[in-house]
Amino acid sequence: MTSTVVALVLAVAFSAPQGTFTVDPSATVVRFHIRHKLHQVDGRSTSIEGRAVVEPDGKVLAMVRIPVASFDSGDTNRDAHMRETLESGAHPFVVFKGVASLVVPAAAGRSPVPLHFKGELDFHGVKRPVEVPAAVEFRPDGMAAVRGKMTLSLEAFRIERPSLLFVKIDDACAVEFDLTLRRDR
Amino acid sequence: MALALLALSPRSAEALHLLDEPLSLERPSPDRAALHASKPPVADPSLDFDLLGKPPPVARQDDASMKLRRRMLSLHQGVGLGLAALELGTTVVGQLNYSDRFGSDPPATARYQATHAALAYGTLGVFAVNGIVALLAPRPKERTYAMDRIMVHRIAMALATAGMIAQGALGVYTHQREGYLDQQRLARTHLVVGYATFAAFGVGVGAIVF
Questions:
Q1: CB-based contact (8 Å) between B169 and chain A?
Q2: Is B61 on the interface with A (CB under 8 A)?
Q3: How confident is the model at residue B140 (pLDDT cuts 50, 70, 90)?
Q4: pTM (global) more than 0.80
Q5: What kind and span of H or E run contains A113?
Q6: Nearest Cβ partner of B209 from A7, A107, A165?
Protein backbone atom coordinates (compact mmCIF):
# COMPACT_ATOMS: atom_id res chain seq x y z
CA MET A 1 0.00 0.00 0.00
CA THR A 2 2.76 2.40 1.05
CA SER A 3 4.78 1.63 -2.05
CA THR A 4 1.73 2.21 -4.26
CA VAL A 5 1.12 5.62 -2.70
CA VAL A 6 4.81 6.53 -3.04
CA ALA A 7 4.79 5.40 -6.67
CA LEU A 8 1.67 7.47 -7.35
CA VAL A 9 3.14 10.55 -5.69
CA LEU A 10 6.38 10.15 -7.64
CA ALA A 11 4.51 9.66 -10.91
CA VAL A 12 2.63 12.91 -10.35
CA ALA A 13 5.69 14.76 -9.13
CA PHE A 14 7.89 13.77 -12.04
CA SER A 15 5.41 13.68 -14.90
CA ALA A 16 6.40 15.90 -17.78
CA PRO A 17 3.86 18.21 -19.42
CA GLN A 18 2.52 16.14 -22.26
CA GLY A 19 1.40 17.30 -25.65
CA THR A 20 2.64 18.91 -28.82
CA PHE A 21 4.53 22.18 -28.75
CA THR A 22 5.16 24.38 -31.78
CA VAL A 23 7.91 26.95 -32.14
CA ASP A 24 6.74 30.54 -32.03
CA PRO A 25 9.03 32.17 -34.66
CA SER A 26 8.36 35.67 -33.36
CA ALA A 27 10.01 34.81 -30.04
CA THR A 28 12.62 32.39 -31.28
CA VAL A 29 16.18 32.91 -32.41
CA VAL A 30 19.09 30.71 -33.40
CA ARG A 31 22.49 32.41 -33.29
CA PHE A 32 25.75 31.24 -34.78
CA HIS A 33 29.27 32.45 -34.26
CA ILE A 34 32.20 31.89 -36.56
CA ARG A 35 35.71 33.21 -36.25
CA HIS A 36 38.35 34.43 -38.66
CA LYS A 37 41.77 35.73 -37.69
CA LEU A 38 40.50 39.26 -38.39
CA HIS A 39 36.80 38.96 -37.64
CA GLN A 40 34.31 37.45 -35.24
CA VAL A 41 31.06 36.97 -37.08
CA ASP A 42 27.78 36.70 -35.19
CA GLY A 43 24.76 35.73 -37.23
CA ARG A 44 21.21 34.78 -36.51
CA SER A 45 18.03 33.39 -37.95
CA THR A 46 14.51 33.95 -36.76
CA SER A 47 12.76 32.06 -39.54
CA ILE A 48 12.53 28.84 -37.63
CA GLU A 49 10.03 26.03 -37.85
CA GLY A 50 9.96 23.56 -35.02
CA ARG A 51 7.76 21.15 -33.18
CA ALA A 52 8.20 18.93 -30.16
CA VAL A 53 6.04 16.11 -28.92
CA VAL A 54 6.20 15.16 -25.26
CA GLU A 55 4.85 11.65 -24.83
CA PRO A 56 3.21 10.41 -21.61
CA ASP A 57 6.37 8.55 -20.58
CA GLY A 58 8.41 11.74 -20.85
CA LYS A 59 10.00 10.87 -24.18
CA VAL A 60 10.48 14.00 -26.25
CA LEU A 61 10.61 14.00 -30.04
CA ALA A 62 11.79 17.26 -31.54
CA MET A 63 12.32 18.58 -35.03
CA VAL A 64 13.62 21.99 -36.07
CA ARG A 65 14.03 23.32 -39.62
CA ILE A 66 15.82 26.53 -40.59
CA PRO A 67 16.08 27.93 -44.12
CA VAL A 68 19.73 28.61 -45.03
CA ALA A 69 18.60 31.78 -46.81
CA SER A 70 17.40 33.18 -43.48
CA PHE A 71 20.91 33.38 -41.96
CA ASP A 72 21.70 37.02 -41.34
CA SER A 73 25.17 38.14 -40.29
CA GLY A 74 24.57 41.85 -40.80
CA ASP A 75 26.54 41.88 -44.04
CA THR A 76 24.59 41.17 -47.23
CA ASN A 77 27.67 40.21 -49.21
CA ARG A 78 28.85 37.79 -46.54
CA ASP A 79 25.36 36.27 -46.35
CA ALA A 80 25.32 35.79 -50.12
CA HIS A 81 28.76 34.23 -49.85
CA MET A 82 27.53 31.97 -47.05
CA ARG A 83 24.62 30.78 -49.22
CA GLU A 84 27.13 29.99 -51.97
CA THR A 85 29.30 28.04 -49.53
CA LEU A 86 26.36 26.15 -48.07
CA GLU A 87 24.99 25.46 -51.57
CA SER A 88 21.57 26.63 -50.51
CA GLY A 89 20.11 25.77 -53.91
CA ALA A 90 20.71 22.06 -53.37
CA HIS A 91 20.36 22.11 -49.58
CA PRO A 92 17.98 24.93 -48.68
CA PHE A 93 17.32 23.82 -45.07
CA VAL A 94 19.19 22.85 -41.95
CA VAL A 95 17.16 20.18 -40.16
CA PHE A 96 17.59 18.77 -36.68
CA LYS A 97 15.71 15.76 -35.37
CA GLY A 98 16.28 14.49 -31.88
CA VAL A 99 14.95 12.45 -29.01
CA ALA A 100 15.34 13.04 -25.30
CA SER A 101 13.79 11.98 -22.00
CA LEU A 102 12.13 14.56 -19.84
CA VAL A 103 11.55 14.22 -16.13
CA VAL A 104 10.34 17.31 -14.34
CA PRO A 105 10.90 17.12 -10.59
CA ALA A 106 8.13 18.71 -8.55
CA ALA A 107 10.73 20.86 -6.82
CA ALA A 108 11.84 22.24 -10.18
CA GLY A 109 9.11 24.88 -10.16
CA ARG A 110 9.88 27.28 -12.98
CA SER A 111 13.57 26.54 -13.00
CA PRO A 112 14.97 25.01 -16.21
CA VAL A 113 15.06 21.25 -16.50
CA PRO A 114 17.98 19.68 -18.34
CA LEU A 115 17.33 17.83 -21.56
CA HIS A 116 19.89 15.88 -23.51
CA PHE A 117 18.92 15.34 -27.11
CA LYS A 118 20.43 12.59 -29.16
CA GLY A 119 19.67 13.05 -32.77
CA GLU A 120 20.74 13.90 -36.24
CA LEU A 121 21.62 17.14 -37.96
CA ASP A 122 21.09 17.46 -41.69
CA PHE A 123 23.33 20.34 -42.73
CA HIS A 124 24.69 20.98 -46.22
CA GLY A 125 23.15 17.69 -47.31
CA VAL A 126 25.24 15.75 -44.80
CA LYS A 127 23.47 13.92 -41.99
CA ARG A 128 25.48 13.42 -38.84
CA PRO A 129 24.59 12.25 -35.35
CA VAL A 130 24.72 15.02 -32.77
CA GLU A 131 24.13 15.35 -29.05
CA VAL A 132 22.57 18.58 -27.96
CA PRO A 133 22.41 19.59 -24.32
CA ALA A 134 19.52 21.93 -23.59
CA ALA A 135 17.34 23.19 -20.80
CA VAL A 136 13.58 23.58 -20.92
CA GLU A 137 11.44 25.80 -18.80
CA PHE A 138 7.68 25.28 -18.74
CA ARG A 139 5.70 28.41 -18.08
CA PRO A 140 2.26 28.58 -16.50
CA ASP A 141 0.80 30.09 -19.69
CA GLY A 142 1.49 26.86 -21.58
CA MET A 143 4.64 28.14 -23.25
CA ALA A 144 7.98 26.41 -23.03
CA ALA A 145 11.40 27.98 -23.47
CA VAL A 146 14.24 25.77 -24.67
CA ARG A 147 17.79 27.04 -24.60
CA GLY A 148 21.05 25.39 -25.42
CA LYS A 149 24.21 25.51 -27.41
CA MET A 150 26.52 23.26 -29.32
CA THR A 151 29.60 23.50 -31.51
CA LEU A 152 29.69 22.12 -35.02
CA SER A 153 32.63 21.28 -37.21
CA LEU A 154 32.08 22.80 -40.64
CA GLU A 155 34.36 20.29 -42.29
CA ALA A 156 32.45 17.40 -40.72
CA PHE A 157 29.52 18.60 -42.80
CA ARG A 158 31.75 18.90 -45.88
CA ILE A 159 31.47 22.66 -45.92
CA GLU A 160 34.33 24.35 -47.68
CA ARG A 161 35.41 27.01 -45.22
CA PRO A 162 35.31 30.50 -46.76
CA SER A 163 38.47 32.55 -46.61
CA LEU A 164 39.34 36.20 -46.37
CA LEU A 165 42.78 37.35 -47.46
CA PHE A 166 43.51 33.70 -48.21
CA VAL A 167 43.01 32.75 -44.55
CA LYS A 168 40.12 30.35 -43.89
CA ILE A 169 37.62 30.85 -41.10
CA ASP A 170 37.90 28.50 -38.10
CA ASP A 171 36.35 25.08 -38.45
CA ALA A 172 34.27 25.46 -35.28
CA CYS A 173 30.86 27.07 -35.56
CA ALA A 174 29.17 27.76 -32.24
CA VAL A 175 25.39 27.57 -32.34
CA GLU A 176 23.07 28.89 -29.64
CA PHE A 177 19.33 28.46 -29.70
CA ASP A 178 16.64 30.17 -27.74
CA LEU A 179 13.32 28.66 -28.74
CA THR A 180 9.90 29.58 -27.45
CA LEU A 181 7.28 26.93 -28.02
CA ARG A 182 3.54 27.15 -27.64
CA ARG A 183 1.46 24.16 -26.58
CA ASP A 184 -0.92 23.12 -29.36
CA ARG A 185 -4.61 22.89 -28.50
CA MET B 1 39.61 -9.03 4.34
CA ALA B 2 37.38 -8.55 1.30
CA LEU B 3 35.38 -5.93 3.18
CA ALA B 4 38.57 -4.12 4.14
CA LEU B 5 39.73 -4.07 0.49
CA LEU B 6 36.30 -2.84 -0.63
CA ALA B 7 36.42 -0.05 1.94
CA LEU B 8 39.88 1.05 0.73
CA SER B 9 39.05 0.88 -3.01
CA PRO B 10 38.38 4.22 -4.86
CA ARG B 11 34.73 5.18 -5.19
CA SER B 12 32.85 7.58 -7.39
CA ALA B 13 32.13 10.83 -5.52
CA GLU B 14 28.63 10.87 -7.04
CA ALA B 15 27.80 7.54 -5.42
CA LEU B 16 29.41 8.08 -2.01
CA HIS B 17 26.22 9.15 -0.25
CA LEU B 18 24.46 5.97 -1.37
CA LEU B 19 26.70 3.96 0.95
CA ASP B 20 25.18 5.73 3.91
CA GLU B 21 21.62 4.85 2.92
CA PRO B 22 19.89 1.63 4.02
CA LEU B 23 19.21 -0.97 1.33
CA SER B 24 15.67 -0.79 0.04
CA LEU B 25 13.55 -2.15 -2.81
CA GLU B 26 11.41 0.99 -2.90
CA ARG B 27 11.52 3.43 -5.88
CA PRO B 28 14.56 5.69 -6.07
CA SER B 29 14.53 8.96 -4.18
CA PRO B 30 13.49 12.13 -6.06
CA ASP B 31 17.10 13.36 -6.10
CA ARG B 32 18.25 10.23 -7.81
CA ALA B 33 15.41 10.38 -10.34
CA ALA B 34 16.40 13.92 -11.27
CA LEU B 35 20.04 12.86 -11.49
CA HIS B 36 19.16 10.11 -13.94
CA ALA B 37 16.97 12.46 -15.96
CA SER B 38 19.92 14.78 -16.60
CA LYS B 39 22.06 11.97 -18.03
CA PRO B 40 21.96 11.01 -21.70
CA PRO B 41 18.76 9.00 -21.56
CA VAL B 42 18.20 7.60 -25.00
CA ALA B 43 20.46 4.75 -26.00
CA ASP B 44 19.15 4.17 -29.47
CA PRO B 45 16.83 6.93 -30.54
CA SER B 46 14.57 6.22 -33.44
CA LEU B 47 14.53 9.26 -35.69
CA ASP B 48 12.03 7.90 -38.13
CA PHE B 49 9.51 10.70 -37.65
CA ASP B 50 8.58 13.94 -39.36
CA LEU B 51 6.88 16.52 -37.19
CA LEU B 52 6.97 19.37 -39.70
CA GLY B 53 5.76 17.89 -42.97
CA LYS B 54 6.74 19.25 -46.35
CA PRO B 55 9.06 22.27 -46.22
CA PRO B 56 7.72 25.59 -47.49
CA PRO B 57 8.83 26.70 -50.96
CA VAL B 58 11.99 28.80 -51.00
CA ALA B 59 13.66 30.74 -53.80
CA ARG B 60 16.10 28.24 -55.28
CA GLN B 61 19.63 29.44 -55.64
CA ASP B 62 21.56 28.49 -58.77
CA ASP B 63 24.58 26.88 -57.12
CA ALA B 64 26.63 26.71 -60.33
CA SER B 65 26.37 30.44 -60.96
CA MET B 66 27.01 31.10 -57.27
CA LYS B 67 30.20 29.03 -57.48
CA LEU B 68 31.25 31.11 -60.47
CA ARG B 69 30.42 34.26 -58.49
CA ARG B 70 32.58 33.03 -55.64
CA ARG B 71 35.52 32.32 -57.95
CA MET B 72 35.21 35.73 -59.60
CA LEU B 73 34.98 37.57 -56.27
CA SER B 74 37.95 35.61 -54.88
CA LEU B 75 39.92 36.70 -57.96
CA HIS B 76 38.65 40.25 -57.43
CA GLN B 77 39.88 40.11 -53.84
CA GLY B 78 43.33 38.81 -54.76
CA VAL B 79 43.82 41.30 -57.57
CA GLY B 80 42.47 44.06 -55.31
CA LEU B 81 45.21 43.41 -52.76
CA GLY B 82 47.88 43.59 -55.48
CA LEU B 83 46.21 46.74 -56.77
CA ALA B 84 46.46 48.31 -53.31
CA ALA B 85 50.25 47.92 -53.48
CA LEU B 86 50.29 49.31 -57.02
CA GLU B 87 48.15 52.29 -56.01
CA LEU B 88 50.43 53.00 -53.06
CA GLY B 89 53.47 52.86 -55.35
CA THR B 90 51.84 55.20 -57.86
CA THR B 91 50.98 57.74 -55.15
CA VAL B 92 54.44 57.65 -53.57
CA VAL B 93 56.23 57.97 -56.90
CA GLY B 94 53.73 60.67 -57.93
CA GLN B 95 54.66 62.67 -54.83
CA LEU B 96 58.37 62.20 -55.61
CA ASN B 97 57.76 63.30 -59.19
CA TYR B 98 55.90 66.43 -58.06
CA SER B 99 58.64 67.29 -55.53
CA ASP B 100 61.29 66.76 -58.19
CA ARG B 101 59.49 68.91 -60.78
CA PHE B 102 58.12 71.69 -58.61
CA GLY B 103 59.93 71.37 -55.29
CA SER B 104 62.22 73.93 -53.74
CA ASP B 105 65.43 72.21 -54.90
CA PRO B 106 66.03 72.98 -58.57
CA PRO B 107 66.92 71.79 -61.12
CA ALA B 108 64.08 69.40 -62.01
CA THR B 109 65.44 66.09 -63.27
CA ALA B 110 62.18 64.35 -64.32
CA ARG B 111 63.75 61.09 -63.16
CA TYR B 112 60.47 59.83 -61.63
CA GLN B 113 58.27 60.83 -64.53
CA ALA B 114 58.46 57.65 -66.60
CA THR B 115 58.10 55.40 -63.53
CA HIS B 116 55.09 57.38 -62.34
CA ALA B 117 53.47 57.22 -65.79
CA ALA B 118 54.05 53.46 -66.05
CA LEU B 119 52.67 52.83 -62.56
CA ALA B 120 49.70 55.12 -63.21
CA TYR B 121 48.72 53.40 -66.47
CA GLY B 122 49.21 50.01 -64.81
CA THR B 123 47.05 50.98 -61.85
CA LEU B 124 44.33 52.37 -64.10
CA GLY B 125 44.27 49.24 -66.27
CA VAL B 126 44.23 46.75 -63.39
CA PHE B 127 41.61 48.84 -61.55
CA ALA B 128 39.34 48.81 -64.61
CA VAL B 129 39.71 45.05 -65.18
CA ASN B 130 39.20 44.27 -61.49
CA GLY B 131 36.09 46.44 -61.35
CA ILE B 132 34.67 44.68 -64.41
CA VAL B 133 35.31 41.27 -62.81
CA ALA B 134 33.27 42.33 -59.77
CA LEU B 135 30.49 43.88 -61.82
CA LEU B 136 30.16 40.84 -64.10
CA ALA B 137 30.01 38.32 -61.24
CA PRO B 138 26.59 36.58 -61.22
CA ARG B 139 24.21 38.12 -58.74
CA PRO B 140 22.33 36.18 -56.05
CA LYS B 141 18.59 35.83 -56.65
CA GLU B 142 17.62 37.38 -53.37
CA ARG B 143 19.60 40.56 -53.15
CA THR B 144 19.19 43.01 -50.33
CA TYR B 145 20.85 46.33 -49.83
CA ALA B 146 21.85 47.64 -46.43
CA MET B 147 24.44 50.05 -45.06
CA ASP B 148 27.00 47.38 -44.29
CA ARG B 149 30.65 46.72 -45.12
CA ILE B 150 30.01 45.86 -48.73
CA MET B 151 27.95 49.02 -49.22
CA VAL B 152 30.85 51.07 -47.79
CA HIS B 153 33.16 49.18 -50.18
CA ARG B 154 30.89 49.95 -53.14
CA ILE B 155 30.58 53.66 -52.28
CA ALA B 156 34.32 54.02 -51.64
CA MET B 157 35.18 52.23 -54.88
CA ALA B 158 32.71 54.36 -56.85
CA LEU B 159 34.53 57.43 -55.49
CA ALA B 160 37.90 55.82 -56.26
CA THR B 161 36.69 55.09 -59.82
CA ALA B 162 35.73 58.74 -60.28
CA GLY B 163 39.14 59.69 -58.87
CA MET B 164 40.96 57.30 -61.20
CA ILE B 165 39.18 58.67 -64.28
CA ALA B 166 39.87 62.25 -63.17
CA GLN B 167 43.50 61.34 -62.47
CA GLY B 168 43.97 59.79 -65.89
CA ALA B 169 42.58 62.84 -67.69
CA LEU B 170 44.31 65.33 -65.38
CA GLY B 171 47.65 63.55 -65.58
CA VAL B 172 47.67 63.50 -69.38
CA TYR B 173 46.53 67.14 -69.55
CA THR B 174 49.16 68.22 -66.98
CA HIS B 175 51.83 66.48 -69.03
CA GLN B 176 50.63 68.32 -72.16
CA ARG B 177 50.98 71.68 -70.35
CA GLU B 178 54.74 71.36 -70.23
CA GLY B 179 56.24 74.89 -70.33
CA TYR B 180 52.98 76.65 -69.44
CA LEU B 181 52.52 78.63 -66.22
CA ASP B 182 49.47 76.67 -65.11
CA GLN B 183 51.28 73.32 -65.15
CA GLN B 184 52.24 73.48 -61.47
CA ARG B 185 48.68 74.35 -60.46
CA LEU B 186 47.39 71.42 -62.51
CA ALA B 187 50.08 69.15 -61.07
CA ARG B 188 49.07 70.18 -57.54
CA THR B 189 45.43 69.41 -58.30
CA HIS B 190 46.51 66.06 -59.75
CA LEU B 191 48.43 65.38 -56.54
CA VAL B 192 45.48 66.26 -54.29
CA VAL B 193 43.05 64.17 -56.35
CA GLY B 194 45.62 61.36 -56.24
CA TYR B 195 45.68 61.38 -52.43
CA ALA B 196 41.87 61.55 -52.28
CA THR B 197 41.64 58.59 -54.68
CA PHE B 198 44.15 56.65 -52.60
CA ALA B 199 42.12 57.43 -49.45
CA ALA B 200 38.86 56.26 -51.05
CA PHE B 201 40.62 53.12 -52.26
CA GLY B 202 42.01 52.53 -48.76
CA VAL B 203 38.54 52.88 -47.23
CA GLY B 204 37.16 50.45 -49.82
CA VAL B 205 39.80 47.81 -49.07
CA GLY B 206 39.64 48.44 -45.31
CA ALA B 207 35.86 47.95 -45.30
CA ILE B 208 36.37 44.39 -46.51
CA VAL B 209 39.51 43.50 -44.60
CA PHE B 210 38.83 44.96 -41.13
A1: no
A2: yes
A3: confident
A4: no
A5: strand A113-123
A6: A165
